[in-house]
Structure formats: C-alpha cells, structure tokens
Design a protein that fits this description.
heterodimer; A: six-stranded mixed sheet; four-stranded antiparallel sheet; B: mainly beta; seven-stranded mixed sheet; 0% helix
Chain lengths: 112, 113
C-alpha cells in the first residue's frame, strides 16, 4: 500500500557537518512531496516542497530533489548550524482524502 | 496576525474530566485538521473538516468529538479524559482538501494526571 518511510533518528551532528535525512515513499502517480520542520515547542512549518519529478525544493540552505526512479526525496544541507536542531518530517498526500501523510519524524541535534 | 491559533497552549487536568481545545485560522482556508503528536514526535491525523463538513475521521475513540461552527474554527472536545490522552494536539489548515500545504498552530500540550 501507499506509505512514506523516513530515516529513524535521532541524528546528532557537529556544527558545519553535512546532513542527509532519507525519505522514500510508495504511491500511485507523482504526488507533490514536502519536508516540514518542527522547532522545539512549536508547530510544524513547511521547509520546502517539490511538485513534479526532478524538481528541487530549497530553503534556508536545505535541498531535496524529487527522484521518481528511486521514489525518494532525501533532505540535505551542506553545513548545519545549531539553530537547525529540530524534528524534520517528510510528507506527501497518501490518505483516504489525499490529505498529507507524515513520516515518523527525524530528530536532529546540532552541537556547537 | 497569527495564521492558526490554538487555546489553551497548556492544559493540565485530572482523569475523567471533560475539556475542549479551540482552534481558529484567519487564512481563509476551507479545510482544517486535528493531529495528535505523541512523546516520540509521531504525528497522527485525527479529524479533518472541509467547509464545515467532516471528511476525515480516523480511528479515534468516540470520547473525542470535533465541532466546526464555521470555516474558520475547528474545536476539539474530549470527554472522560484518560492518561493515554496526554500528548500535544495540533490544529492545521489548508486552502482546500487534498495534498495542499498545511499551516499548523503552535500546539496544545495536554497532560492528564
């Protein structure tokens, strides 16, 4: 069935390290793909999105490319900062009403 | 000018009580949602309303009852609270039903003692 699988955390990195958080999915067609971020004590907010194959979403130094061949949408950042410490969620429309379905979340902690 | 607001932000109550959480959005969106986030950050959708009509009703105990008096408001009432109801509850809205970007409120942390 349709699903979204996200890399389990927690992930701990030093400042300026390279970040990858994996996200793969199974779905019919080519749905829009999203990454959301949840900073401590806050609600989720959209980080970036891609609406079609080979699109690259980017924001705040984060990037993710819509790869239909591998059904993946991995999140990357070349140099993380302490302020990037948060929980990251991959999401796509999979539900009965095609509402967004969120991955299990990946907790990222960046140490100075 | 908060887009999606929830009240209260914190709610501490005893088992067996009845409580409500309110949500309002000023984005002019048609669709609103309630999510439950557990201590491991797993996010589970509970309900969704589109133009005041219930469109998603996931497997949630019937002690939970949503109410949408108008498109801009979606409230969550919980009867006979149990320890397992302790979680953070998020309200969200989107322009329309389907795979549109969702805008989240700040969350309500419910603690049942």
């Amino acid at each position: 069935g349709n699903s979204v699988t996200q890399m389990e955390g927690p992930v701990t990195l030093s400042e300026e390290a390279f970040l990858t958080i994996n996200c793969t999915y199974t779905a019919t067609g080519y749905p829009s793909l999203f990454w959301y971020v949840q900073y401590p004590g806050e609600g989720l907010q959209l980080l970036l999105k891609a609406t079609k194959a080979d699109d690259k979403g980017s924001n705040k130094g984060f990037e993710a490319t819509y790869r239909k061949e591998t059904t993946s949408f991995h999140l990357e950042k070349g140099s993380v900062q302490v302020s990037d410490s948060a929980v990251y969620f991959c999401a796509l429309p999979l539900g009965s009403a095609r509402q967004l379905t969120f991955g299990s979340g990946t907790q990222l902690t960046v140490l100075p | 000018d908060t887009a999606v607001s929830q009240t209260p932000k914190y709610l501490v109550t005893q088992m067996g009580n009845d409580k409500s959480i309110k949500c309002e959005q000023n984005l002019g969106h048609d669709t609103m949602y309630w999510y439950k986030q557990d201590s491991k950050k797993f996010l589970k959708i509970m309900f969704s309303y589109n133009n005041k009509e219930l469109i998603i009703n996931e497997t949630v105990p019937n002690r939970f009852s949503p109410k949408s008096p108008d498109k801009a408001h979606l409230n969550l009432h919980i009867n006979s609270l149990e320890l397992g109801d302790s979680a953070v509850y998020f309200c969200a809205s989107s322009q329309a039903a389907g795979g549109h970007e969702q805008f989240f409120g700040p969350g309500t942390r419910l603690t049942v003692l």
